[in-house]
Amino acid sequence: MKNLIDGKWVDSSNGNTLDDLNPSTGMKIDTFPASTKEDVNAAIDAAERTYGKWYDLGSKERGRIVRKAGDLIQLKRKELEDLLVRECGKIRPQAQEEVNGVLDQIYYYAEFERKITGDLVEGDTSTRKILQYKLPRGVVVALTPWNFPAAMVARKLAPALMTGNSVVLKPSSDTPLIAEWIVRKFQEAGVPSGVLNFVTGKGSEIGDYIVSHKKVALVTLTGSTGTGQRIIEKSSANMAKLMLELGGKAPFIVWKDADMERALKTLVWAKFWNAGQSCIAAERLYLHEDIADKFKEKYVSMIKGITVGDPEKSQMGPLINKDAQKSMENVMKVSSDENLKVLSGGKVPELSGDFKNGFFFEPTLIDNVPQKSSLFQDEIFGPILGIHRVNDWDETLKLANDSQFGLASYLFTEDSRRIFQAAEAIRFGETYINMPGPESSQGYHTGFRMTGLAGEGSKYGIEEYLQIKNLYVDYSRNKLEIGGMPGF
Ligand code: NAP
Questions:
Q1: Is the pLDDT of residue 370 over 90?
Q2: 279 given a catalytic annotation
Q3: N or C end of the chain: which has fewer CB within 10 A?
């Protein structure tokens, strides 16, 4: 694997590398450059030098190139699916779904060609006008996570490039190969040298340097709240615009009048899709007490049937790495310290052959979790779900909002009045009513509280990549009079 700097695929300047592992087996699959500050400087310099020329190509041409990248990905999509299985541990149908998501993002943003418009605003007199231009911000640094390692790369590259910015992409150190594959397709599609740069390496080593670099105008991160907080501190050095898509702790409310089959099916998806490693995963189940026993019984039998193991043959794959697996064991330790009842799962499954050293964990359900437990306060980001019984509507809304995170939330009820009450009362960026996610390209994916700043998707998401600039014009034939300057 290589870095892409100023149009050339190169090793890190000191030749150092890091290992890339297959999470299903724990085996090494490749190495990637452990980039240095010199590599970062070279990538940012190239991006700064070229963004003006990229903008000058015009949005129609940029749209053609971005769309072509989508076409090239579509042609070889099986390669990307294979990488998602091998490097990220996605089960095959979810790898296929993610590639669909990549294409959807790219084609959606390509549609903005010739659609970015500024404004013409009346000035203070009839011969004065203000033209509000929407210009590229300049050098965009994109930091992507491993949980949707292809979709998140597409969701940043396509809008950043469509709006005429240049990019330095640093992918997750758990999934650099997937990101490199996509970058190669954008390059092949005709993104000029220097406009799209790709630098790998540990965020803990080069992250501070990249985000505080003086030539960087915008930093877009999808990652954890801790990383987002650090970036806020470090970017005081350059005042870069920040787009921070951070953690979640989604409440999943099943009211007594819910369509139970619909809620059960959605909850299997909302918790065990991607082995629970999703920012919109259900992390807190609020069950109405009138239906709790019946719901629990059915749900336990559904999740006991989920097969875990080989991502080619199972319904749930591994966690991303050893640390993630250990973190599930820590959650179980808290559950045991708090004397909580485990209804299903709770440990690392015993697998054989190639998969015995993979980072798997059983689908797990824990009963009667107190609201104040860390199981209901901290992001778990794995296949463990806690249940909390409820009976009072207003109290349930309060419990749902009692979280530092505010990304996704779910409500299952057939009562339309409750739906409209929840629309305003549940303070989360998105609420799914009687349906599963994930978010659509045309939705604005955003969060309240510690879930971050700004958002992605829709016309609002693409506008984050643009800087408004005002042009003041006076075309009066009269002599210029300036108030407050006597004698002139
Ligand atoms: P992460 O550890 O914060 O890493 C995200 C990216 O930031 C990686 O590329 C990482 O590089 C880099 N990074 C780490 N430290 C950095 C620093 N000091 N400066 C600059 N970059 C740095 O998050 P993750 O574990 O990959 O992803 C899981 C998290 O993402 C969860 O909290 C999840 O909820 C969140 N997420 C949010 C959304 C959303 O839309 N809101 C979507 C998906 C995921 P390394 O890999 O080299 O450390």
A1: yes
A2: yes
A3: C
